[in-house]
Amino acid sequence: MVISLALLFTVCMVSSFFEERLRERDKVVLYAIFGVAMIFIAGLRQVGSAPDSLEYEMMYYGNENALIAATTEPSFLFLAAILQSFKLGVNALFLIYAMISVAIHLPLFWKMSRMPLLTLTIYISYYFMMHEMVQMRAGVAAGFFLWAMYFYVEKKKMATLGCIALGAFFHYSAIAGLALFFMSDSLPRWQKIILYLIIPVGLIFYFTNLDLSLLVPEKFGGDKLAYYREMKEMGLEDELAGWPLRNNMLIWINFVLYTACIYYSEQLTRYCKYVPIAIKVQAFAFCFLFFAHGVSAVLGNRMNDFFSIASIILWSASVYAFYPRIVGIAISNFISSFRFVASVVMYALALWFFK
Q1: Smallest Cα–Cα separation from 62: which of 43, 84, 42?
Q2: Which SS3 state, helix, strand or coil, does residue 187 take?
């Protein structure tokens, strides 16, 4: 499986250097081939070959844990019931989720980016492994959220709401995507100042472990937040929290990307009109990482991972800050290579520690 992933990533990355020279028909065919390969790699994996796959198997065949059963999304229960009625195993579920997610993501990258092969390379380097091969419900929901961003910028508010609702059908965390309606798709100077401050202020909150949730009244969810704090104090969430920020180079690289995209936002927006909203969604993701950490590192990290899907748009647009453009493509692919290797290592470590 690792060899297949490495081959897929390498061929896609090499193709991205030449995509502006390819004929439209050839690019479409190549793009479709990559999509089919992604479906096979994610959909045909065996139970135990990927983190969370054993948990999905237990959920598929019925889980006696009442909490997990109560928090399982209706889409999962519906698909599991349909597949089991045909006497199909959990591998069929992996394949269905892979088909749905790839079918959502690929057309969107084509619409939102002038260089879809480069965008696909960025996606494969991290999110394909994290979502389609591990958190597959979140992967589908993240795809729908990207569509929500697209429709929001296109001024199609009902389509935006529909995509958020569909995302929540696959993963409850997508409900937080309603925050999109409080964002504008422009970036005035005063908003840039606020966006710049999120990282330094957030890092202070993160490393001092300040807990803003203590200010939330009990009737507005403070009791549930107290439950998360109790889990953290008992050490019950340590294994699920992922790599701490101080050791996670992927997030620090995203900090640099985010700051640079704010600085070059006017130039980047001329080539990709989705940059301003992507910057704000990335800021929203960082807010979860920084300000939810005091109550739950699991909640903060996973919500940051979910909404940081917007960074794909920022990475692909960032190449327009360089001249000649091939320099930007080379830098983007170098960082994608680093991200891919780091993701494979994290993937392997997760299998080792949670097998």
Answers
A1: 84
A2: coil
146: number of Cβ within 10 Å: 24
pLDDT in tens, the chain (355 residues): 788 999 999 999 999 999 989 999 999 999 999 999 999 999 888 777 666 777 788 888 875 555 555 567 888 888 988 999 998 988 899 999 999 999 999 999 999 999 999 999 999 999 998 888 888 999 999 999 999 999 999 999 999 999 999 999 999 889 999 999 999 989 999 999 999 999 999 999 888 877 665 555 544 444 555 555 565 665 555 555 566 788 888 899 999 999 999 999 999 999 999 999 999 999 999 999 998 877 777 778 889 999 999 999 999 999 999 999 999 999 999 999 999 998 888 766 665 554 5
The backbone torsions φ and ψ at residue 85, rounded to the nearest 5 degrees and listed phi first, read -65, -25
| Residue 92, phi then psi, degrees to nearest 5 | -65, -35
Contact call for residues 1 and 41 (beta carbons, < 8 A):
yes
DSSP for 228-261, please give it.
HHHHHHTTTTGGGS-S-GGG-HHHHHHHHHHHHH
| Alpha-carbon radius of gyration of the chain | 20
In angstroms, the CA 298 to CA 135 distance is: 14
For tokens 């998360």, the residue is: 228
**What is the DSSP-derived secondary structure letter of residue 45?**
P
What is the C-alpha separation between 297 and 110, in angstroms, rounded?
34
- Of the candidates 80, 93, 103, which has an alpha carbon nearest to the alpha carbon of residue 45? 93
